[in-house]
């Protein structure tokens, strides 16, 4: 039985992928050839990204291909870009809620609807 990564002539069939990870102060993009049938996890390990960034924990960090979340067991296609995502520091919904509350307190937002203050409907201050 022929291995999935070999073509009809028995030679190893390679695909090219990129593995990317970024911090606010440092980003890394690594291109590498891998055998057809390689999984996301195998490519990340093969890239050396886990050595370059010791804070990456594949049990914690989510991964994706071209901004689409995938499992570590997903097989790669030629020219896939594997992205290793950092955990969120703050919940985006909570941040938005705090920003809206601050805008209401400062008078930049309507206290009833939360939307922008309509200057035509704003009360005249005397």
How would you describe this structure in keywords?
126 residues, alpha+beta, five-stranded mixed sheet, 3 helices, 21% helix
Short description:
The protein is an alpha+beta fold and 126 residues long. It contains 3 helices and 5 strands.
Describe this structure as you would to a colleague.
With 126 residues, the protein is an alpha+beta fold. It has helices at residues 40-47, 49-52, 92-105; strands at residues 14-22, 27-35, 63-65, 68-70, 81-84. Strands 2-1-5-3-4 form a five-stranded mixed beta sheet, covered by helices on one side.
- Total helix count? 3
Q: Mean pLDDT across all residues, rounded?
A: 85
Give the SSE order as H and E letters: EEHHEEEH
pLDDT under 50 segments (min length 5)?
none
* Radius of gyration (Å): 24 Å
């Amino acid at each position: 039985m022929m291995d999935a990564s070999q073509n009809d002539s028995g030679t190893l069939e390679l695909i090219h992928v990129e593995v990317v990870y970024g911090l606010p102060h440092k980003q890394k993009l690594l291109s590498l050839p891998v055998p057809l049938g390689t999984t996301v996890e195998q490519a990340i390990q093969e890239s050396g990204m886990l050595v370059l960034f010791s804070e990456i924990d594949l049990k914690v960090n989510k991964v994706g291909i071209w901004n689409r979340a995938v499992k570590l067991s997903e097989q790669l296609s030629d020219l896939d870009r594997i992205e290793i995502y950092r955990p969120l520091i703050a919940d985006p919904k909570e941040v938005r809620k705090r920003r809206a509350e601050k805008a209401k307190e400062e008078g930049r937002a309507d206290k009833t609807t939360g939307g922008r203050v309509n200057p035509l409907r704003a009360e005249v201050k005397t």
